[in-house]
Specification:
Oligomer: single chain
Number of strands: 0
Largest sheet: none
Strand content: under 5%
Radius of gyration: 15 Å
Structural class: mainly alpha
Order of helices and strands: HHH
Number of helices: 3
Length: 95
């Protein structure tokens, strides 16, 4: 289930970047790829740096519900990074 949410989030980020770049006369495919990379970058930063530090030894061995929470929080953080980056970089690039 969380894999489906992650796929939807990365596709949504890529499409959002693509359409925004296209409407502003920027190279749309490049920005779409950048949107996907920013989502995955935020996801991996949250999952493998922040959570690994916060949870410690329980990062590898945890309960089902803790794993779901880890995945959902990483999806949310990746989406947040993509959204903030879009606002700070792509929207201002055309101004």
């Amino acid at each position: 289930m969380t894999a489906i949410l992650s796929v939807l989030a990365v596709l949504g980020s890529a499409i959002w970047y693509y359409r925004t770049a296209e409407s502003r006369g920027q190279p749309a495919i490049g920005w779409g790829v950048a949107g996907a990379m920013l989502y995955y970058g935020g996801f991996l930063l949250w999952m493998h740096v922040i959570l690994k530090f916060l949870i410690g030894a329980h990062f590898q061995v945890h309960s089902f519900w803790v794993g779901i929470g880890m995945d959902l929080s990483a999806i949310g953080f990746g989406a947040l990074v993509a959204a903030l980056s879009r606002h700070l970089v792509l929207r201002r690039k055309s101004s």
